[in-house]
Automatic annotation (TrEMBL):
Compartments, as annotated in UniProt: Mitochondrion
Domain remarks in the Swiss-Prot or TrEMBL record: In contrast to class I sirtuins, class III sirtuins have only weak deacetylase activity. Difference in substrate specificity is probably due to a larger hydrophobic pocket with 2 residues (Tyr-77 and Arg-80) that bind to malonylated and succinylated substrates and define the specificity.
Protein name: NAD-dependent protein deacylase
Deacetylase sirtuin-type domain ranges (all copies): 8-278
Organism: Callosobruchus maculatus
Enzyme Commission designation: 2.3.1.-
HAMAP family, alphabetized: Sirtuin_ClassIII (MF_01121)
Molecular functions per Gene Ontology: histone deacetylase activity, NAD-dependent; NAD+ binding; protein-malonyllysine demalonylase activity; protein-succinyllysine desuccinylase activity; zinc ion binding
InterPro entries for the chain: DHS-like_NAD/FAD-binding_dom, NAD-dep_sirtuin_deacylases, Sirtuin, Sirtuin_cat_small_dom_sf, Sirtuin_class_III, Ssirtuin_cat_dom
Major localization listed first in the record, in broad terms: mitochondrion
Length: 278
């Protein structure tokens, strides 16, 4: 359809048009996904990196998997912690942190709503962050009467995973760790789990409420490095566009995920984001 194609063409790589909108925005929401950490060497979910040994990572990120094989799921998360803690923030994370400081000086608001659990936005210096799906450096106790939430950057997280940090080989025949050697709660000594929202689990209601409020009040939304397939995060940017507010998508894909997005910047966000926010 030539008209739509014409529209789409006008939206792509219009850095100048974007900067005009950016300079006028007072309440900016940035939704980020795995693509913002790809250039830090952290595998994305749906690229080839979405595998660990011979498992699809999404099959291990479920309460059922943890219930039936906590040692395997903990070994997967111990590996993900090792990868995240050894990684460095990249230019996309840094550009967002710098821009947040600039907004603060100008009395404007910028909030990052991230689907990522790698903690790199915080390490890059961003402050206003909502972690939709939890964080790799946090654990929560599985004892319903306790639910103690702890934070640690121990790598490995427990003795039993010594030497198995960055193991991602298919058929290493190391024995599966015994349940009693898995990470325990400091308060009640019960088994702890990653403080991560798994598939089929509800997001924290306070996190959801704050995210919904930002979606309803922001006057500009950036959506960076996400395939927009996982709900409810996938709804946020389209909801902003439905309010008639501009949405700018940054992705290596050529076309906008939604025709309703005002801007699309194809390419690696480690390059396009610093240019757009510069
Ligand atoms: C919920 C933590 C209510 C885990 C994650 C059937 C049964 C049960 C549930 C469902 C169902 N059908 C649908 C659902 C809902 C489900 C869902 O949406 N499933 C999808 C797969 C269809 N959602 C849920 O379960 C959520 N809870 O809905 O609660 C409920 C309750 C019970 C039953 C039903 C509903 C909870 C979802 C949270 C799951 N946890 N993460 C962990 O990390 O281990 S999700 C995980 O994948 C990430 O956190 C992220 O959110 C998500 C998507 O990944 P992306 O970040 O988008 O990364 P991806 O690899 O996909 O894409 C990377 C993108 O970057 C690409 O577009 C690529 O082009 C781009 N890119 C790459 N490099 C670059 C780049 N761009 C720029 N520069 C680059 N350099
Ligand atoms: Zn406990």
């Amino acid at each position: 359809v030539p008209f739509l194609h014409e529209m789409a063409k006008r939206k792509i790589s219009d850095f100048e048009g974007f900067q005009k909108v950016l300079n006028g925005a007072k309440n900016i929401t940035v939704l980020t996904g795995a693509g913002v950490s790809a250039e830090s060497g952290i595998p994305t979910f749906r690229g080839e990196g979405g595998w660990w040994k011979n498992y699809r990572s999404a099959d291990l990120a479920t309460p059922q998997a943890f219930q039936s094989n906590p040692a395997l799921v903990w070994e997967f998360y111990n590996y993900r912690r090792h990868v995240a803690f050894s990684a460095q923030p990249n230019n996309a994370h840094r550009a967002l942190a710098e821009f947040e400081k600039k907004c603060k000086q100008e009395g404007r608001k910028l909030t990052i709503i991230t689907q990522n659990v790698d903690g790199l936005h915080k390490r890059a210096g961003s402050e206003n962050i909502i972690e939709l799906h939890g964080a790799l450096h946090k654990t929560i106790c599985t004892n319903r009467k306790c639910r103690f939430i702890d934070e640690n950057y121990d790598d490995p997280i427990c003795e039993a995973f010594n030497g198995r940090g960055d193991v991602n080989v298919q058929d290493d025949n190391s024995p599966v760790v015994m349940k009693e050697d898995l990470p325990k709660c400091k308060k009640c000594n019960s088994l702890v789990r990653p403080y991560i929202v798994w598939f089929g689990e509800n997001l924290d209601h306070e996190v959801l409420r704050k995210s919904r409020e930002l979606v309803e009040t922001c006057d500009l939304c950036l959506v960076v490095g996400t395939s927009s397939v996982v709900y409810p995060a996938a709804m946020f940017a389209p909801l902003v566009a439905q309010r008639g507010m501009p949405v700018a998508e940054f992705n290596i894909t050529d076309e906008p995920a939604e025709q309703s997005f005002a801007f699309h910047f194809p390419g690696k966000c480690g390059t396009t984001l610093p240019k757009a926010l510069g």
